[in-house]
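User: What would this chain look like folded?
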Amino acid sequence: MIEKPELRGGYSYFVSEEQLRAFSQLTDLERLQWVDDARLFTLLGRTPQTAERQERLRRGEKIDFEF
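Assistant: Here's the prediction, encoded as structure tokens.
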């Protein structure tokens, strides 16, 4: 089993072996379409607060969630 790294800020995620296997079976064009679809999906729901958090994550900074 793969151990997850300690989180120190920024953004991270875990991809399972099954997910990697499924993605590896896509054609190059299907992979690019998948990435672009994910990009467009996230932009649709982006608020100014979300945009700021994304910028902080890109810089490797921690973000605080307000509820």
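The mean pLDDT is 85. If you want, I can go into more detail on any region.
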